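We both want to read discrete structure tokens more fluently, so let's practise on a single case. Would you supply a protein for us yourself, any chain you care to pick? Would you write everything just below, so we can both look at the same thing?
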Amino acid sequence: MKRIPKPVFFIVAILILLFTYSAIFGVSYYVGDNKQTITKGITDIRWGTDIRGGVEATFEPADNYNATDAQLDSAKSIIETRMVSSGITDYELYADYNTDRIIVRFPWKEDEKDFDVENAIKEISSTASLTFRPGNSYEKTSIGSDGKYVNQVATGETKTILMDGSAVKKAQAGYDSSSTNAKASNYVVSLELNDKGTKTFADITEKYNGKVVSIWMDDIMLSAPTIQEKITGGKAQISGDFTAEEATSLADKINAGALPFKLSTASYGSVSASLGENSLEAMAIAGIIAMIIISLFMIIMYRLPGLIAVIALFGQMGITVAAMSGFFPVFNSFTMTLPGIAGLILSIGMGVDANVITSERIMEEMRGGRTLDGALDRGTKSSLSAIIDGNMTIVIVAIILLLVFGPFNVLSFIFGQSTTGTIYAFGYTLLVGVISNFIMGVGLSRVMLRAVAGYKFARHKWLFGGVKDGE
């Protein structure tokens, strides 16, 4: 058996526990009354309408605009893209072609406290437009909610639009490690232009070489870079004092595009939760009790491998929560529904099953007379195929659920047109849970097993579920 340095056990275990704590509770601090979030936690998850309620709104073209069916479909698609890019997956969206209405229902934002329906509606119905303009003159400056200066309303030559967002093929948030400006943020938004945009942008950068070309979203100036050279490759960057979240949000808005016509709200209202947050608290308490019982069972039955399995289960839960809360800056908070919680619980069960199979195989090898090292080597290898077979079937089911009930309805030609929402959440948490099970339950738990076996105090078969030495 390949030996792993002994300290690796404590290093991996501590890192897993620290990660799980930060993923569940988040890391933040206060500057006066303003909360500064470093990493998001479980409280930053956007809960579905079944748990927390939400908003219902009916939109119609503003100014009596007579929209065609194709334009209604385009507006519906853009609203859907905006919701998905914001992590809203529990929604209902319909287009009524007879009355030119678009009906949508979606949950409250994760940080919503005032439950302001009008502000919630603006999140998906805004007609934000990206433009590139000469110069950087503006009429007024205000202070944003984050305390930063916001330059607004173009004046002079900056009123001229050189290129709009229709020239952009794709936008993606990223980190520019090559930046040498220590005072500026290294987060950027990379733009990939379409064929027409590539030619237009090449002409702009040639004409304004050495001059400022500002980038605007509606009446707000996002950035005002100086053109350094003619850009002909069809790729560019928006840089500025962005945080990771701001860069991601801007990229999402650019990708979502502008609506084909301005929307007005015909009617709106709030949607009551079918379960309520009291049910969520009850489920949380039940989950904690279940985790305690599982942990005791694993430790009593399998001793040291059981303890390592418990650490791996905490890590698996941490990864799953991190994938839903927006812990990783490039991902938005995911909408969690009751079926989504069921998917999380099922994936934890798969994690327990994987560790039970491995522990049982190790015990069988020791009962067959193998040495501790031989039992660990043979037991972990022989259990791998069974774990992969069991988990791959779940992965296939989860992917089918995502394709059928997800935002893109890839398999709708087989199953019929379906709406996104609760089933999608189940498939998502199930898939993420199984992937995290492979990382923790199959990968790091085995690393910890082999590392801890190097310590003299741990080299007793009894600690691994075998009989006491000498019996």
